Amino acid sequence: MNEAVNELPKGVLHLAGNDSKFSLMRYAPSAETEYFVQHYWIVRWDLRGKEPYHQTVIAHPNVNLVFEESNTRIYGVGKSTSVRVVQDHGWVIGIKFKPGGFYPFLGAPVSSLTDRSASLEDVFGSERRSWERSILSAPDDQSMLSRTEAFLSERLPEKDPNVSLVHEMVMAFRDDRSVIRVEDAVRVTGMNKRALQRLFDRYVGVSPKSVIKRYRLHEAALRIDKGELADWLDLSMELGYYDHSHFIRDFKSVVGMSPEEYRQQRENLTTPST
């Protein structure tokens, strides 16, 4: 049985204000697939009789394979936010590969998928419809997970040692608040700048700078959504920024609005209408 993953869902904007519309469950991979997979995720929604909802996400540095009725796709890493229109009712199941974990399946630079998607046939040579029917018709989460893991287990490539290396680097960038610039990444990894950029282009799909920025903004958006509205200067310092103007500029460049505008938008979502 795949165990549920209890970490907070960073990157899904305003999730706290919309949790009544959706359920999100995440599950750890099996020992057989964990070298490549970070976790599996299942989203269910029921908006029958309601307006379609536009869900905005700051992408993680991970490739996702999403099984969805008539729309199964492999999604590369986006450079900014992406918007998914959710309507009616339904469910999807996704495989979230570790940073670097999809390269052995693709056999080409993961940057070729950046800001785009590919079909199941393009990468795996597998017929989409039969797998959609098999996986999405399963009666419960564990059955869906078992069928999804069966699909992946039959197609596992050889283990590439760079997958572990890249994953460790990305986790270090996520957890070390002193890593803000590419120069900081060079210091932490001990790898020269050009080599590090080439490695990330091939295995992650976006630059080290992009990875660092999105993790800081994931944390910022989550803090705002939870109502932990510290002074912007204090928040920027906690996230490792040297000055709050740099933080505000980064936030706006990715999210499309300032932190203050985002905070106000959250309040509008969570304040009952009269």
Percentage of residues assigned to helices = 40-55%
Q: Detail the poorly predicted runs.
A: none
- Give the rounded overall mean pLDDT: 87
* Strand order across the largest sheet: 1-2-7-4-5-8
User: How large is the count of helical segments?
Assistant: 11
Query: What is the number of independent domains?
Result: 2
The N- to C-terminal Cα distance equals 46 Å
Structural class: alpha+beta
Following the backbone from N to C, one meets helices and strands in this order, namely: EEEEEEEHEHHHHHHHHHH
Strand content: 15-25%
Tell me what you see in this structure:
This is AraC-type DNA-binding protein. GO terms for molecular function: DNA-binding transcription factor activity; sequence-specific DNA binding. It holds the Pfam family DUF6597. Residues 164-265 form the HTH araC/xylS-type domain. With 274 residues, this protein is α+β, with helices and mostly antiparallel strands. It folds into two domains: 15-153, no CATH class; 161-270, Arc Repressor Mutant, subunit A (Orthogonal Bundle), CATH 1.10.10.60. Helix content is 42%, strand content 17%. The strands form two sheets. It has a six-stranded antiparallel β-sheet. Strands 3-6 form a two-stranded antiparallel sheet. Strand 4 and strand 5 form a beta hairpin. Helix 3 packs antiparallel against helix 4 (141-153) and helix 9 (232-238) packs across helix 10 (244-255). The protein starts with 21 loop residues before the first strand and ends with a helix.
